[in-house]
Amino acid sequence: MPNAIPADSVGLVVPQTLRFSEPLALDCGRTLAEYELVYETYGALNAARSNAILVCHALSGDHHAAGYHAPEDKKPGWWDSCIGPGKPFDTRRFFVVSLNNLGGCKGSTGPVSVNPATGKPYGPDFPIITVRDWVKSQARLGAALGITQWAAVIGGSLGGMQALQWAIDFPDGLRHAIAIAAAPKLSAQNIAFNEVARQAIMSDPDFHAGHYYEHNVVPRRGLMLARMLGHITYLSDDAMRAKFGRELREGKLSFGFDVEFQVESYLRYQGQSFVERFDANTYLLMTKVLDYFDPAADFNHDLSAALKAATARFFVIAFTSDWRFSPARSREIVRALLDNDHEVSYAEITSSEGHDAFLMPNAHYQTLLHTYLERVAREVGV
Amino acid sequence: MALRPDFEIISEWIAPGSRVLDLGCGDGALLAYLNATRGVSSYGLEIDGSNIIKCIEAGVNVIQTDLDAGLSDFDADSFDYVILSQTLQAVYYPDRLLDEMLRVGREGIVTFPNFGHWQNRVQIALGGHMPVSRNLPNEWYNTPNIHLCTLRDFEQLCAKNGISVLQRTVVDHAHRGGWGMRLFPNLLGEIALYRFQRRSDV
Q1: Radius of gyration of chain A measured on its C-alpha atoms
Q2: pLDDT per residue over B139-197, tens digit each?
Q3: Are A107 and A63 a contacting pair, CB within 8 Å?
Q4: How far apart are CA A357 and CA A362, in angstroms?
Q5: What is the dihedral of CA A285, A291, A297, A298, to 10 degrees?
Q6: Angstroms from B49 CA to nearest CA on chain A
Q7: pLDDT tens digits, residue range A11-36?
Q8: Among residues 37-96 of chain B, which lie with CB inside 8 Å of chain A?
Q9: In Å, what is the CA distance from B195 to each residue of A371, B21, B94, B149, B171?
Q10: pLDDT band at residue B1 under the 50/70/90 scheme
């Protein structure tokens, strides 16, 4: 943490855990008899319980979206730029809830958790989860916190997909859905990248078919490769050129295969540090959640039909240099909403940061979110 | 917020409770006005990021888009009115955009600065330079207005493209009418407002 907690930070936060003993029937046909969800909250729920915002995380995110866990933390939560007093999700007005999704590796029930049936970690036997399953579990978390309707459900990338699914599955469960840098489903290219990531992990000799916990090893190389590949798709060509160019670490070519270019060093660092904080089985699972997301599939592949029953107001945001989920993908969502005469606004933000832009501080982006959330605040009377 | 006087004229042309699309909606003031006075359901299209923020602040639905890329996100006949206010002269393909307006909407409404106004004619004829005026404040090299036209030009295009004019109002810069403008609209009118639809025989 910086020397002093910034005035616009939510400060020190403590994650909480809720245990759910009502079985959760999953899309895959299996049932989780019981499970735990880890979450954090920022701000206070008002008496009318109308000011709650649900923040949904993306592929490698977790419940720690804002503030610090300990004074010595070097970095705040992953969306600290947007959550806090005076920030777009203003914690003086809103009660912000952020959870670690099922299948995660940061405390909510997932592959690293002990399977009560065997007494051993689930590992690869953890059921494949879907966005719909997540939304169901999030609704139960909301109910446990006394929230029957979210003022807004917000997320970027895979998080934006959850916001969409919310609007489809629980039309009355939210007033606003804010989907940032998202897509209505993955393209073949998106799935292809995920498959290479999975192959990297599964072909690591330390993977042991997912049972690596029992061997006291981690498929480090595979997970690192998966993350390196993912990271390339999060950045734009321009951002990489601006950040690294062809700069050499030692200033000259060494005619070998060691790290020479700065971009190599950066990717390796990203990959290595990811291995320290993320579980390979969870990574596999998260890529599957992405691949399977396709709310239109249940409606004869008609996205407009899928969104027909939605009553939320939508705010869709895309970034110009995002080629993983490009603006054209967001416009598919907008179009389906327009088909239904739903209330929707769409902003296309000029950014060179690629898909990662949704997490980066950007004055225009933050003003947009802030302005929209002000409107939500007025609506719910805070 | 000061209301632009042409808003009132447009508003009178709009049936209450109808569906409206505003092309180049700027800060959303017209739509906010129509939402409030006519109870319409509406969307605005706008390209400028700072205007998008203003629209969101005004509580209107806005889609950030480039009008020159067309209206392909909208189905045919999805609106009662498609409005193009002070923007026709700034797009690359005004003729195609008019067609698009009447594809997605039942009726179109446009407003534009009349290039045939006598002051413009004088500046070209006697001054020998491109007109600069209250309604056309830019120099030729930095103007967004790349397709200026006169009332006659516009009506000729309508006739050629099977568009019938339902209503025309010509006003001065303060959006006042007058007998002179009714007699010599193309000479004395500064701003033209048209409501039109697809000719039924087309």
Answers
A1: 21
A2: 999 999 999 999 999 999 999 999 999 999 998 877 777 888 888 999 999 999 999 99
A3: yes
A4: 8
A5: 10
A6: 8
A7: 999 999 999 999 999 999 999 999 99
A8: 41, 43, 49, 52-53, 55-57, 59, 61-65, 73-75, 78
A9: 34, 14, 16, 17, 15
A10: very low
**Chain B interface mutation, best of A175, A371, A373, A374, highest count of B Cβ atoms under 10 Å:** A371
Residue A208 is a catalytic residue: no
B83 close to B20: Cβ distance less than 8 angstroms? yes
Place of tokens 């029953």: A309
Q: What are the residues facing A20 on neighbouring strands?
A: A35
Considering only the beta carbons, identify the residue of B41, B53, B61 that sits closest to A367: B53
A82: which DSSP letter?
T
Burial tier of B12 (Cβ tally within 10 Å: 0-12, 13-18, 19+):
exposed
User: Tens digits of per-residue pLDDT, A278-292?
Assistant: 999 999 999 999 999
**Predicted TM-score (pTM) above 0.90:** yes
Contact B61 A345 (CB under 8 A): yes
Q: Which residue, chain included where needed, has tokens 């003022």?
A: A151
**Burial profile A138-150: b = 16 or more Cβ within 10 angstroms, e = fewer:** bbbbbeebebeeb
DSSP β-bridge partners for residue A35: A20
B161 burial via Cβ count (<10 Å: 0-12, 13-18, 19+): middle
